[in-house]
# Entry
Amino acid sequence: MKIMGVILQIGFLHVFLFLGIALKHFIPLPIPSSMIGLFLLFVALCCHVIKLEWVEQGAKWLMAELLLFFIPSAVGIVNYQQIFSMQGLGIIFLILISTMIVMGVTALTAEKVSARKKGEGH
Amino acid sequence: MIIAVFTIVTYLIYLLSKKIYKKVTIAAFHPLLLAPILLIVLITITHVSANQYLQGSKLLSHMLAPATVAFAVPIYKNLAIIKKYLGTIAVSITIGTLVAMVSTFLLSKLIHLSDDFIVSILPRSITTPIAMEVSKEIGGLPALTTVFVIITGIAGGIVGPKVLKWLSIKTPIAKGLALGMGAHGVGTSKALEYGKQESVFSSLAMIFAALITLVWGTLLTTFI
# Structure
């Protein structure tokens, strides 16, 4: 029964995705339809147009299994032979280094800023 | 029919990979690395071409779109936390996105990447559907961007926890923001292993990173 509920709710989330796709035609900015859908769902929840229970389980499942949805694209990497060349090694190296820098800087910034905020509060 | 087969096979291999990873917890066995490798081996043995597989597993990659919509739920549920930490989140992610683009650009120059590769790799630290959109806007190749986004996710899932350990990051907000900023959805699923707070901050980081990168992307296309 729980599975049916999750499937139904994922269907309901698609309503917001389709609204996002429709609305995208009228927005001259490069915002993806899924992001517009996210915004619409958020507004609908805030204005109590829909109840949290109507989407909560479906959303939880989609977010918990996020890795699954990346797997086909990861398999698709075999289509890019360049990745397996010397330049590919360079790119992987680049991404590793840059990701480490990004995470390090973001974490340190967050700790500094939130510590300062706490200090001001007291 | 084919879609059903590929979807089920992918799902089973995904479950298997998760199980193996839980047992061994070695970075090289991360599900986003192990599952695709197993699948590549499987389709090679069964003489299925990569494009046939991609067609057949479309339903799964499509789910990234409703999954993005679904992130409205944690935002809504954690509105109080967002209001409380808005400053920290905004500052950290603005700096994070800048560091991501600048470091990627400089390192790309260092290894002499061609221009179309550079514009395709710039939005790599944000979640796929949005990265593809940004890539399109700044003149990159969306399919290539997807590849870089995936590699970023795998890299972040593996080195992320190590970076946090080396820098002895303690607070859930810093851990969550770093994982979501550095490795989008993959980082967020990693954050879930740390705890609830971390995963909330990670989802928020992901959404903010996407939005702020869109702004950078728009500025970049307007002024260049």
Observations:
- Chain A touches chain B through 72 residues (CB under 8 Å).
- Helices of chain A lie at 2-24, 33-46, 56-64, 66-75, 86-121.
